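Sat 14:20. Reprocessing the chain from the morning session after the first attempt stalled halfway. Input below, unchanged.
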Amino acid sequence: MNEDIALNKILGNIKKKQKVGVGDFVLGEVAVVKDNMAVVELIHGFNKVLSPADVGVLFVKNIDTRYVEKPEDCFSKGDIIKAKITEVGPYEYKLATNSPELGVVMTVCKKCKETLYGESRACWNCKSQITKKFAVERDW
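Finished this time. Tokens:
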């Protein structure tokens, strides 16, 4: 009996995994860019990492309101993006970045490897042009 009480006390002190749902905004790191989608490892809020099993899938049709042929035109591996959860599936979250305030919030210049934040259309260090689906700064 005392073992059950002790076990319940221990389990009660373990923080519950943070849940996110449809309509929530999340940050994530682009892990893989495929022909018709990007796979994103989710972070909820700033610095709150969800379980490593929590991944989002961002299909090409949900990247932007304009036509996007390939996800690599908008995202690269390692980009930090802000996205909205549109559906919670059994194995992944379905994401969208098709609003102005959603998209890349941090990236790395391919030429000089400088870290770029916000809506950087050109690298401040080497001046090379950056073409991505950037998030327009509003509330982040």
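The radius of gyration is 18 Å.
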